Amino acid sequence: MLKILINPDPILRQKAKPVTNFDDKKLQKLIPEMIETMQKSDGVGLAAPQIGESIRLAVVTYRKKTIVLINPEIIKRSLLKEWGEEGCLSVPTIYGDVKRHKKITVNYIDAQGKKQCLQAFGMLARIIQHEVDHLDGILFIDKAKKLFTLTPHESND
Ligand code: NI
Fold first, then answer.
1. pLDDT in tens, 24-67
2. Below-50 pLDDT ranges, the chain
3. Which domains does the chain have, with CATH numbers?
4. Which among 25, 109, 110, 141 has most CB atoms closer than 10 A?
5. C-alpha 139 – ligand 1 centre gap (Å)
6. Would you name the residues annotated as active-site residues?
7. Backbone phi, then psi, for 67, in 5-degree steps?
8. CA 30 to CA 38: how far, in whole Å?
9. E-strand spans in the chain?
């Protein structure tokens, strides 16, 4: 499991660099490690800057499917936006409502180095917008309407 950087780590605020070599050994090792880290942390998305790699890579999970997004680019955004609650593994215990485009089209490269185009709605569109923001050094707390803290119950069982 990889260590997740916590706000205000400066790496979280950098604009991440595009991936150029898709079969780079380090990248191919990093992808399953990021998926494992996301799953063990009960997250629905994880961007590479959150584990200290300032590259344009994110993993997302939705309806038990995992999507690996390399160099994601949102090429279409619906005019319609909606508010929804968000949290972030790098901003623990803090939640807030963020307005996001309801529908997006995203171009990306998958883990096999293939170009993909995905239309996403609702929750999946929200997760992808949150992760692409990470690649630009933006955190949901920058956009949230009001933030609130939820402290996890102190229980280890
Ligand atoms: Ni996040």
1. 999 999 999 999 999 999 999 999 999 999 999 999 999 999 99
2. 155-157
3. 10-149 (3.90.45.10)
4. 109
5. 7
6. 131
7. -120, 130
8. 12
9. 45-47, 57-62, 65-77, 81-88, 91-101, 103-109, 115-121, 147-149
